[in-house]
Amino acid sequence: MPLTARRRRLVEVLAVGFAGSGLMAWWAWLDEEPGHPEQLHGIQIGPWLLGLLGLVLLLTAWLRSASLKSRRGLTAACWSTPMLVTRPMLSQDSWAYAAQGWLLAHGHNPYLVAQGQAGPMAAHVDWHWSGTTAVYPPGSLWIQAAMTALAANHPYWSILAMRIPAVVAMVVIAVAVARMARMTGADPQLALWLIVTNPLVLLNIIGGAHNDGLQVAIALVALWSGWSLARARRPWLGLLAGGALVGLAGTIKQPGVLAGLGLVALVHRQVVTDGGRDTWRALVGRTLTGAVAAIAVFTGVSAIGGLGLGWLNDTAGTPASVTSDSLIAMTVQVIGWTGIPVARLVGPATTISLVLTAAAIIWCWARWGPVPGYRAAAGSRPLALQAAALAAFAICGASLQPWYLIGALAVLSLTPLTRRLTAGLVVAGVLGSGLCFLQWFSSPFLALPVAILTWLVVWLPARGHQWWESVAAAASGDPMRAGERVEAGGASGLG
Predict the structure, then answer these.
(1) Where are the transmembrane segments (predicted)?
(2) Is 437 exposed, middle or buried (0-12, 13-18, 19+ CB in 10 A)?
(3) In the beta sheet, which residues pair with residue 336?
(4) pLDDT confidence band for 142 (50 / 70 / 90)
(5) 3-state SS of the chain: helix, strand, coil percent to 5?
(6) pTM score, whole prediction
(7) CB atoms within 10 A of CB 454
């Protein structure tokens, strides 16, 4: 694309994306009955149509920006700006953050005191969780307390302050993704387009201020730092530094500890490539080194203020008790319709979820991880393992929301991608964004089938997936290079 045409395209996508984001922010501000209203009426349909138009414009701008091989940071910043000053978007979780932060800042233990008792924040907490205590590890709580204190305990300013860690997370993700993509042989600009400018990511990390953003950011830095030190022939330092960051990511949100899988696999593979031992003893030793560092940091942060592991208390909110995109949660709700109390089903559902998750992660390691005596380290695929483990944790969990898959998407973008897989990730970004919008005012029992039906319509027909592949080809620059990159990825074993 000629320079003049690229400049025109850049101005176009910045303007259209900003307009779309602005309309969605306006919708979030005008929506008088967020969540799941009992019925639709005129004053609500107006804002929703406004939000729908905004979403269409934002997604259109993202797809149109695929061929631009630069200015990803500028694009993300422009599109994010309207989201920074509005009410919570697509989720009310940030009100729970503010409530938990208010409790901790005022000397209360959020693991013992319900969110519905959080002073001026209490009235805004979703009714599902107002009677429950915090479910997040202490790292999140301390950040939330700092943000509410910074906002002088004002509800609106507290919500805006919750976006400060989100912005920091996006910057860190952008830096980590760009640097790791170069290390893996992937296309940094494609990776940044798939993650940093993706509406699914921006709407949930910036608009929704989800702590998943900071958890993913720290986990990526853990992988990057550990692998970089291993490449510099300092693997044990890499395991200690990376492991410490894994523990820190876990104190933000529990799935962060899964980054330890990718860290150990990356370092082990690098050490073997450099002439080190590829034995079970060596692998276990490296695993324990990273684990000790992670446990030390996680325990240390948890000990601050005596909060400990209070997120395991019975009073904490249980994801399985509400409807989400999780098959387990949906099953619980369906059984509950027969008259069996949902509270009685939560325990068995959680147990089933843990068993399935553990089995899935073990399978992921057996499929892509290093297995001395069966698969040499050179044949392992650490980043595929990491992405699959994160996806398995989300899908097999007792709760599933579209933004839970951002971590897996980020890691997958670091691998050399075929055009077909890139097209699939683009479709996932579009449908995931739409699913988040639909679930703001409808049950997953309706929203998820609509998303699946839409996928069937836009992907399965030959012309459909050919069009999405053309977008993927534009994003990757040269359509022929996609196949070459996947061969390189197979040879390097990272993908």
Answers:
(1) 12-30, 42-63, 156-178, 190-206, 213-230, 236-267, 288-312, 318-338, 345-368, 388-414, 421-440, 446-462
(2) buried
(3) none
(4) very high
(5) 75, 0, 25
(6) 0.93
(7) 16
